[in-house]
């Protein structure tokens, strides 16, 4: 069963990479068919198998020999590992990781992500909460969406606030503090290597969340 879950997870990871690429390039989810980003040649079935195709192709396009980003292989492998943790009790956390994983991939490419992710990822954490917490969360979520666009240069993105809010609802104050500390340290190291005025923070938050989830 773990092997089957890993295979399904790797396929989902491959799908998330493809969806994020379509979002970044503003192309349809359904058309055109999967193709090499460099030579635009359509890919055949054996070139679309998660993990195995990358290894068989040795990380290069079969047609033009352009390098395939190693991040695709890494994401497929991690997604496979995450799905092996799926049980009836972990459905919501695994779904949460998948939704924010997609958002992080989009954010890494464009520093934006589809707004519907927040409206799905936050509410799925609410059924286990009290009515008071639900009302406060809804008010905060609506407030972030209404107010954040009026700030010319906000120090943190509205999506970052939404993932922090939903993480706190799932795992509590102590786990949230550990998660944020890890993500912030990774971001500081990255900003020291590549000096930038701004950079996407969501990938660091998601990487930290994955690390804590798999470690536990």
From TrEMBL:
Q: Which UniProt keywords apply?
A: Hydrolase, Membrane, Transmembrane, Transmembrane helix
What InterPro entries does the record tag this protein with? Prepilin_pept_A24_N, Prepilin_peptidase/N-MTase
Q: Which GO terms describe its molecular function?
A: hydrolase activity
Output the lineage of the source organism. Bacteria, Bacillati, Bacillota, Bacilli, Lactobacillales
| Protein name in UniProt | Prepilin peptidase
The superkingdom listed in its UniProt entry is Bacteria
Question: What Pfam families does the record point to?
Answer: A24_N_bact
Enzyme class name: hydrolase
- What residue stretches are annotated with the Prepilin peptidase A24 N-terminal domain? 7-85
Stretches that traverse the bilayer = 73-96, 116-148, 169-193, 199-215
Write down the EC number: 3.4.23.-
Species, as recorded = Levilactobacillus fujinensis
